[in-house]
Write a structure and sequence with these properties.
The structure is a homodimer. Chain A has two domains: 3-221 and 396-409, Aldehyde Dehydrogenase, Chain A, domain 1 (3-Layer(aba) Sandwich); 228-371, Aldehyde Dehydrogenase, Chain A, domain 2 (3-Layer(aba) Sandwich), CATH 3.40.309.10. Chain A has 15 helices and 16 strands. The first copy, chain A, has helices spanning 3-20, 24-40, 42-59, 63-69, 73-88, 127-138, 152-168, 184-191, 206-215, 238-250, 266-282, 291-296, 305-309, 325-335, 348-357, and strands at residues 96-101, 107-114, 117-122, 142-146, 176-178, 199-203, 228-232, 259-265, 286-289, 301-302, 316-322, 340-344, 362-367, 385-386, 394-395, 402-413. The N and C termini of chain A lie far apart (48 Å). In chain A, helix 2 packs antiparallel against helix 5 and helix 10 (238-250) packs across helix 11. A seven-stranded parallel β-sheet of chain A has the order 10-9-11-8-7-12-13, sandwiched between helices. Chain A has a four-stranded parallel β-sheet with strand order 5-4-3-6, with helices on both faces. Helix content of chain A is 44%, strand content 20%. By secondary structure, the first copy, chain A, is α/β, with parallel strands linked by helices. Strand 13 of chain A pairs parallel with strand 16 of chain B.
Chain lengths: 416, 416
């Protein structure tokens, strides 16, 4: 176990004790100071980011990855505004979610409390450093941040800035900590630091998630893999289906809630597929279809088993014609990642069957899968999208960064 | 990976799909049939239990362990009645916990759904087989049961009985499954069966929990370790403190919510300790005290560092005199297992400080720690007491065996 990391863990644990009972006013003051710090340190952060961009170009990162990595004055302002918006959210800590009286007069309640120490391992976008730290601080959690090596200079500069600002307001230095190491062994150590971490949230690609699943002993919230489907039912409004399909595929193809496979009921396939395929191709989408799809719209590549399994994160769409709602649900069960799934239908019963039968974090009727997002759901923030069932499922806001404790008021009560 | 176990995992996964949308009526019918089955198979279950008791005696199990292992007609009736009481509870599945409308008209709700497949590794008491299976069935989860080797004959007989009864009602055979192996490697395999288990709940001693923490790749809900404290404040009603201390220590010393250490404010130590110690000794409790305790009540052994750390689960109590509420809280933070902690006080402010500052699943004012229990809290059932912060904390009832999914109703909504 890395000694520096162990020390950070201990300091985070101590800081978490302080944060657990810190007042909302103090936490919000620190958040505002962090936002001000980001604006004041814009130059230093941009300089650090320039080092990462240079190294990224030398490493041959794709333009898409370089774009994710790049900071600009506008992006730093956005980051600062994001931290301020977290300050403006209601503080969930101390909320008594529910309280009831037992027949013996004992009063039992559930009070929202912080999780304690949150670890986050993330890749690429440096704004996650500020986002995650502010959400954790608001919910009274200490945070240990371990960003991607390609963004280490940017992340270090951002973490130093916000940590300094928080400390200046009287928060303990352990509250926001940055793991300043590119050593993968240190990331592995972080996954196994059960004594000091209450939860680990990995945000990144398949490799990271597999490493976490294989090695973590800390409780984990898995996020983000999304092989999402849009199913056009036999009773769909085809104009609506067209609009939604285009939106779900092309509005932002690189994100986890974009649709990757279109399923079309055979009864509407002949009417719908030529139109939707033309519109998608016109928008630069590469299509890969099943036999029946290709019989209706010739010219596209054949979809393979691998296509059904793939989260493209790109302007590529797999298309399959299905016999029935059941077959569509079976396809989703087999290939989906339980992220976001949509049915387009005017039929009441089919909508209900899809809603009940599809096992996913978010199930949609007549809407784009792209809505799976903390802000779109009205949480005012997002810590990632959980694709597991334990603790948090779907977009995670502030509440998902909390636990509860039972508070029990008696009057000399003893157990009989 | 054990092949038989893998097959059970696959069958459980398939059964879980069926159970997720099974009607409340069908599930309740199966539960009632399971209860009837337990009553009808009383003789076979008692015979199987006799084999375990014989082996247990030969192995030299303690009388306490033998008592936990033993089944009687009365205990089988209790088990059957327990299953029936689960049938009588409201079904949480399908509850829409919350639903709201976004400014764009999109309606977003959270619906309670099963976790999927629950694995449980448990020790000793065979009634857990029926309890756990009935709670999982009620919540639409498939269950894979892996009991202790000392109870394997009893568990096998109970599992076969209830599984047969459920299947006869039309539930899939994979819904309730028993791992019929004493091989520890199979238990390890179960902990790593991430593709087929949604959660693993270990119920047993320290060894089991350490094995789970070290080896599990499946999400885990840790249960039960309880090093609980009762703190008698300087402003305590000493008569109440006496009654509660005796109850918390002696009403059932072998369970995780029994108090293991008594903390007494120095200002009341001279008045309180002689009385409480005499009463405890009269009830057969062995006392181990700090220096100051022993100066007031001579004759007891000195408490060591190990005593503060130990969950005795026995008629032994460690006692420490503290300078202040802060010192009591510091002691609890250092040695407690975040299970159940109590303050006895008449002081409003100290009660509030203790409630806010103590980080535990259940924090009590003027009541016995023995109330930490699903039935006592009014859940009508209990799947164990979680001592972790993720997903479930404290006594787990039916709701803790569920997840949620977002259901989203649109009218052609697309993301801008």
């Amino acid at each position: 176990m890395n000694e520096q990391l162990l020390l950070q863990g201990k300091q985070a644990r101590e800081a978490a004790r302080f944060l657990a009972t810190a007042s909302t006013a103090l936490k919000d003051q620190a958040l505002k100071a962090m936002a001000a710090g980001l604006r004041a340190e814009e130059k230093a952060i941009l300089e650090a980011n320039a080092l990462d961009m240079e190294a990224g170009r030398a490493m041959g990162l794709t333009p898409a990855l370089l774009d994710r990595l790049q900071l600009t004055p506008a992006r730093i302002e956005e980051m600062a505004a994001g931290v301020e918006s977290v300050a403006a959210l209601p503080d969930p800590i101390g909320d008594v979610v529910k309280m009831w009286r037992r027949p013996n007069g004992l009063e039992v309640g559930r009070m929202r409390v912080p999780l304690g120490v949150v670890g986050i391992i993330y890749e690429s976008r440096p704004n996650v450093t500020a986002d995650a730290a502010s959400l954790c601080l608001k919910t009274g959690n200490a945070i240990i941040l371990r960003g991607g090596e390609e963004a280490i200079n940017s992340n270090r500069a951002i973490a130093a800035t916000i940590s300094r600002a928080a400390t200046a307001c009287g928060l303990p230095a352990g509250a926001i900590q940055f793991v300043d190491s590119e050593d993968r062994q240190v990331a592995m150590d972080l996954m196994r630091m059960s004594d000091y971490l209450d939860v680990l949230i990995p945000r990144g690609g398949k490799g990271l998630k597999q490493a976490v699943q294989a090695h973590a002993t800390v409780p984990v919230i898995m996020t983000g893999m999304g092989n999402c489907h849009t199913y056009v039912d036999e009773f769909a409004d085809l104009d609506m289906a067209l609009t939604i399909t285009i939106n779900a595929k092309t509005q932002r193809p690189s994100v986890c809630n974009a649709t990757e496979t279109l399923l079309v009921h055979e009864k509407v396939a002949k009417d719908f597929l030529p139109v939707v395929c033309a519109e998608l191709v016109a928008r630069g989408v590469e299509l890969r279809g099943c036999e029946r799809t290709r019989a209706i719209v010739p010219g596209m590549a054949a979809a393979t088993e691998e296509d059904w399994e793939t989260e493209y994160l790109d302007l590529i769409l797999a298309i399959r014609v299905v016999d029935s709602l059941e077959q569509a649900m079976e396809h989703i069960h087999r290939y989906g990642t339980m992220h976001s799934e949509a049915i387009i239908t005017r039929d009441y019963r089919n909508a209900r069957r899809f809603l009940a039968g599809v096992d996913a974090a978010c199930v949609y009727v007549n809407a784009s899968t792209r809505f799976t997002d903390g802000f779109q759901f009205g949480f005012g923030a997002e810590m990632g999208i959980s694709t597991q069932k334990l603790h948090a499922r779907g977009p995670m806001g502030l509440e998902e960064l909390t636990s509860t404790k039972f508070i029990v008021f008696g009057d000399g009560h003893i157990r009989q």
